[in-house]
Design brief:
325 residues, two-stranded antiparallel ribbon, single chain
């Protein structure tokens, strides 16, 4: 076997994480289609977090029930993780894709690993490889190309602000989860964080005010003449757009470690743009496509700019347990 070849269990990890990226990316199209019916983004994220929390708690009970025990201090940190890193990331992402092409929204959100590297360097005082400065330059150049600054292009300002705010919230999730997983297993961490997100949106989103007739209204499946009731899209978002890919990431993380998991995760914005192009007629200009490639190059450099822990599940780093978009 070649020295650099991946072990069989590692190839399984690659397949698991790549599958999660496909599901997360396709979920962008499903979510945008659901939101175009008039369903409020707050209601969608409330249903999504509540449904996913039930599934993830069930998974944690099966995989490692003793890990669900939490101290009062851990509960506070998990609450912040859930509200900022899950609840706000999901809602801000929904706001962004309502107003921007899915691919552009995800590119903006995917500047989070760069924010993590910069925070680690200047706030935590960690050693960060010099490539982070190249990553910063590439990301700024690429984002300028994506936004077509100076070419008269007009991207929705609220959408851009929401996507960048989602990046900040996502970076917060990475940094906090990075430290939380030093003393907790990933199964209980994802279950509790989703649970606190569900409580937050149950209070704020008031999902009981949703008109049942809206959930039963027909929604045209993109690029087909068929239609399905809205609740089918919501169930897809909960199960195949959240709980399943989230679980696949954790299973992949145990086989690959944080670095490889984060790098494979960068497939998501590329796949999301491709799905949006094929199914929703969302297109990007040649300049925007090139800019997206430059941004992703910067993200890849940022992903590898921090020293990595040797233990596979010791740290999330930037992108290892990514909250669902």
């Amino acid at each position: 076997m070649a020295r650099n070849a991946l072990a069989p269990h590692a190839w399984t990890g690659v397949l698991l994480v790549a599958s999660s990226a496909v599901l997360f990316a396709f979920n962008g199209v499903v979510s945008k289609t659901a939101l175009q019916t008039g369903l409020a983004s707050t209601h969608l994220v409330a249903m999504r977090t509540a449904g996913a929390a039930l599934i993830l708690f069930a998974a944690a009970l099966v995989m490692r029930p003793e890990g669900l025990r939490v101290t009062r201090r851990q509960a506070g940190a998990l609450a912040i993780l859930g509200v900022v890193g899950v609840a706000l990331v999901q809602w801000l992402y929904f706001v962004a894709i309502e107003r921007l092409p899915v691919g552009i929204a995800l590119l903006l959100e995917y500047t989070a690993p760069l924010m993590v590297a910069l925070w680690a360097r200047f706030v935590f005082g960690e050693q960060v490889r010099r490539r982070v400065w190249l990553a910063l330059a590439l990301s700024l150049i690429g984002l300028t190309m994506v936004a077509q600054v100076g070419r008269g292009a007009s991207l929705d300002a609220v959408g851009i602000a929401a996507a960048l705010a989602a990046a900040v919230a996502l970076a917060t999730y990475y940094l906090l989860a990075d430290r939380m997983l030093e003393g907790r297993d990933p199964w209980s961490t994802m279950a509790w964080s989703m649970g606190f997100a569900a409580v937050f949106w149950a209070i704020l989103g008031q999902p009981w005010t949703i008109d049942p007739a809206l959930l039963g209204s027909p929604v045209v499946v993109p690029e087909t003449a068929a239609s399905l009731p809205l609740w089918v899209f919501v169930v897809w978002i909960i199960v195949l757009g959240t709980a399943v890919p989230y679980t696949l990431i954790v299973l992949g993380l145990t086989r690959l470690g944080a670095a490889r998991t984060g790098l494979i995760g960068t497939l998501e914005p590329v796949l999301a743009a491709a799905f949006a192009w094929m199914l929703m007629a969302e297109s990007m200009s040649v300049l925007q496509v090139l800019g997206g490639a430059v941004v992703l190059t910067g993200v890849l450099l940022a992903e590898t700019s921090r020293p990595r822990a040797t233990a596979p599940v010791a740290s999330t780093s930037a992108g290892a347990i990514s909250p669902p978009r």
